[in-house]
Amino acid sequence: MTLGGILTAMVTPFDADGGLDEEGAALLMRELLASGSDGLVVAGSTGEAATLTDAEKARLWEIAVEESGDAPVIAGTGTYDTRHSAELTERATEIGVDAVLVVTPYYVKPNRRGLKAHFEAVAAATDLPVVLYNIPSRCVVDMPNDLLAELARIENVAAVKQARYEDIRPIDGLDLLAGNDDTLAQVLDMGGTGGILVASQLVGREMRRMIDEPESRAEIQAGLKDLYEALTVTTNPIPVKAALRMTGHRVGGLRLPLVDPSDEEEAVIRAALERHGLLARV
Length: 282
Hints:
By secondary structure, the chain is of the alpha/beta class. The protein is 42% helix and 13% strand. An 8-stranded parallel β-barrel has the order 1-2-3-4-5-6-7-8, surrounded by 5 helices. α3 links the parallel β3 and β4. α2 (54-68) runs parallel beside α3 and α3 runs parallel beside α4.
């Protein structure tokens, strides 16, 4: 199974009381799959996984499997605890997702041997493809390319979501996925298979064109630069959730410690949406 295309890191909709909005989640999944997304990543960092209970994660995965049809569902099962990550991976496998996304353990800052042991243990909990998630800006640790090549030898480790900016390159045995919206064109140019992306919740069709129309890739990427910047005006997923609300999507608020954007940040987000004609779609 090749993991690629526009894989959208979906926000998690909450209701007015801060609970999981199951109907809102199903609606958003359908909207994303109809507007350029090839698959969904559910209960990842954009989905506020750190504040979701295990039961909420499992329910989101169940809804995604029900709603996705033939589109792949990738479950975010990684935590900073290897045993917990393996348990979540087992549960996601039972539910019927297509792959799991496993982040490098954050906060505990494992060394190289610990990282290898962590991914070996989590991969052993499933027969599904495992996507490594390398994001040093959030997790402090970085997996260098030689370690990624070593992890690629684990039988079902199939891909890497590469969310660093330096020294991005293909690794034998791993599908290379852009982990930042603004590196999608670069990753595709070097033979990557796609990306796990945030802005695709708003401009999925345009981002899909970067795969389908490689001759226009650089132009499309340049045209989306200001939107990417607006969606990083403060911590993800604060901006994208605000943008989705502004464009009429049912996603609700955020769970602490995340808070709504400031007036100044909201103005930046709104201006970018206006420039791209997205507010007119409401």
